[in-house]
Design brief:
The structure is a single chain. It is built from 6 helices and 8 strands. It is an alpha+beta fold. It has an 8-stranded mixed β-sheet, with helices on both faces. Helix 1 crosses helix 3. The longest helix has 16 residues.
Length: 195
């Protein structure tokens, strides 16, 4: 893959960008302290802002690594990050990226996560030259799967007791999209790296 790092991506209602130290309070207020957000995730709800500060500072430090992809999902109308979308796993041998995301419960069911995810897909296929984008969710959290379907990912099956979260050992519903299928469906031709 041809890694680019966490570059800004502009959508209709959102700006996907790197986090800065100025985002710590917003992150804590908007999602990291929200127990509804963390129910199906692996990291615990942040009870103290110093935890959020430590996490964001580690992300900021990692931005110098071109293989690190961690976007803040900034809602333009309030100019604050309301969540994250990131590569949580990758495999260079198969040119695969695994996407994870979360946003504060106050902004659920408004299409923001789908809008963010759909915009990073062409970035990974055309710029990074990934061949497979995948994501998974706990079947008990079907709204996460709806985001994947809305973005064109196909359901591949349920891996039984294959994941863990704050709920314990859980099943994992797996979805994917291949570059060849995406290009065929959209009629898009991969753009040159500098375009």
């Amino acid at each position: 893959m041809e890694h680019r790092g966490t570059v800004p991506i502009d959508t209709k209602r959102l700006l996907l960008r790197r986090f800065t130290a100025n985002d710590i309070q917003h992150a804590f207020d908007n999602w990291t302290s929200d127990s509804r957000v963390t129910e199906f995730l692996r990291w615990p709800t942040h009870r103290d802002i110093t935890v959020t500060e430590t996490v964001l500072k580690s992300w900021i430090e990692n931005y110098k690594d071109k293989t690190f992809y961690q976007w803040g999902i900034v809602l333009k109308e309030i100019d604050e990050p309301i969540g994250t979308i990131s590569v949580v796993d990758m495999d260079e041998k198969t040119s695969k990226v695994h996407i994870g995301y979360c946003i504060g419960s106050k902004w659920w069911n408004k299409g923001y996560t789908s809008e963010a995810f759909s915009e990073i897909i062409p970035f990974f296929f055309h710029k990074v030259k990934a061949k497979r984008i995948e994501s998974q969710h706990d079947p008990e959290n079907p709204n996460s799967g709806k985001v994947m379907e809305k973005c064109g990912l196909s359901f591949e099956g349920v891996l039984r007791k294959a994941d863990w979260s704050n709920r314990g050992i859980v099943d994992a519903a797996m979805y994917s999209l291949l570059a060849e299928d995406y290009n065929k469906a959209t009629g898009s031709i991969p753009i040159c790296p500098d375009a």
